[in-house]
Every structure is written in structure tokens, then in C-alpha cells.
Specification:
Radius of gyration of chain B: 13 Å
Distance between the termini of chain B: 37 Å
Strand content of chain A: over 45%
Structural class of chain B: mainly beta
Number of strands of chain B: 11
Oligomer: heterodimer
Helix content of chain B: under 10%
Order of helices and strands of chain A: EEEEEEEEEEE
Chain lengths: ~110, ~110
């Protein structure tokens, strides 16, 4: 049973436009959510996080939105750049439990 | 500041063999977690080490075992390798008090079992 789901395996976006990556979760105990970016032959690198007490967190071009009632979060990248092309993983946990990852979404930003 | 480093980067083993993967944690980090990422999947938690003791384990059989050393580096050992063990193995270290909210990953070890 997948507790964190990223239902879109891939996404293509034009350079300069907005990229929206989605993530759904089933465990209502999750209270902390993270996004990681992974380039080929590298480990995942932390991008942005959000606690369940917030519904939005912004860091430069990256914004994460959390909708607790829908158990849904999304990552917005504006404007998208070719260097953003990577696999994006959504992860979640509760308290001090290990991170649970989704399967990832491959973002391609086309110049 | 040196990040998380893993060795080797690639490895090919035969079914039934044993393998040891190594991880050096980032300076100042005292917790190490290991993840398995199979093709097309997200990273799956194997176990975590804190102060040289296992501090949580995912749904992996006992033939997956680990160690953490006084300098916080860590090893992942897998016995009786199976074809399905072929995956990218990721190590992540975390600073004190941030074991599961700040995880810094190494580049991974790609294990192929033939």
C-alpha cells in the first residue's frame, strides 16, 4: 500500500512557464512533507519542505502548497528553467518516523 | 565541508554472494539512514543508525544488516543476494535532532545482482 503517491510519472513544460508537480498521501498522521530533486548519477537533494501547520511555503522560484483536507500537496516552479529538468520526489513523515517517498515525477523543461 | 560519500559507486555481484556498501556521513551528522531505490520506484527505508545502534527498520529481511562506527560512518551488508536486490542504495546522514527532517543523501551505490 503506497502511502505517498505521485501519479504523474513525467511532465514536460516549456522554459519560462510554470511547472506543477503533484503528490497525494493516505496517512493522516503525516505532518511534515518534503520535496527532493534528483539528477542522474547523483543522490536526491533537498528542495523545500512544509509542516502541516502551514498551507504554503515559498523559497525563491519554488512554492509548496499543502491541502490537508484533500491530503494533497503540490510543488510549483516559476519560472521553469532547463536546469530544473530532474526527477522530483515527494516525501512525508510523522513525528520522528523515517521518510516515506513517492515514486517520483520526471520533469523535462524544454528550451 | 565534505558531504555524504558512498563507496563503491557501482558493483556487480552474483546471486547468493554477500556485499558490503560503505557510507561516510557529513561532518557533524550523527544519524545515518539507508534506502533502497529500485528501478522506477522511490527510495524505500531500510534502517537507521544512531549512536552505533539500529534505530528503526523498514520492511526488509534480516539478511540486510548494518553497522555504524564511532566516527558515524556506516556499512550496509546484504547476505545471500537475490536478483531483486539489484537497486540503487542510498545513504543519508542527518544532523543531531533532525534525524528525519533533514536528510542529506550520498550519490548512491548501484548494485547489480546477476
Amino acid at each position: 500500500d503506497q502511502q505517498v503517491k505521485q501519479n504523474s510519472p513525467s511532465l514536460s513544460v516549456q522554459e519560462g512557464r510554470i511547472s506543477i508537480l503533484n503528490c497525494d498521501y493516505t496517512n493522516s498522521m503525516f505532518d511534515y512533507f518534503l520535496w527532493y530533486k534528483k539528477y542522474p548519477a547523483e543522490g536526491p537533494t533537498f528542495l523545500i519542505s512544509i509542516s502541516s501547520i502551514k498551507d504554503k511555503n515559498e523559497d525563491g522560484r519554488f512554492t509548496v502548497f499543502l491541502n490537508k483536507s484533500a491530503k494533497h500537496l503540490s510543488l510549483h516552479i516559476v519560472p521553469s528553467q532547463p536546469g530544473d529538468s530532474a526527477v522530483y520526489f515527494c516525501a512525508a513523515n510523522s513525528g520522528n518516523t523515517p521518510l516515506v517517498f513517492g515514486k517520483g515525477t520526471r520533469l523535462s523543461v524544454i528550451a | 565541508e565534505t558531504g555524504v560519500t558512498q563507496s563503491p559507486t557501482h558493483l556487480i555481484k552474483t546471486r547468493g554472494q554477500q556485499v558490503t556498501l560503505r557510507c561516510s556521513s557529513q561532518s557533524g551528522h550523527n544519524t545515518v539512514s539507508w534506502y533502497q531505490q529500485a528501478l522506477g520506484q522511490g527510495p524505500q527505508f531500510i534502517f537507521q543508525y544512531y549512536r552505533e545502534e539500529e534505530n528503526g527498520r523498514g520492511n526488509f529481511p534480516p539478511r540486510f544488516s548494518g553497522l555504524q562506527f564511532p566516527n558515524y560512518s556506516s556499512e550496509l551488508n546484504v547476505n545471500a543476494l537475490e536478483l531483486d536486490d539489484s537497486a540503487l542504495y542510498l545513504c543519508a546522514s542527518s544532523p543531531p535532532g533532525r534525524a528525519n527532517t533533514e536528510a542529506f543523501f550520498g550519490q548512491g551505490t548501484r548494485l547489480t545482482v546477476v
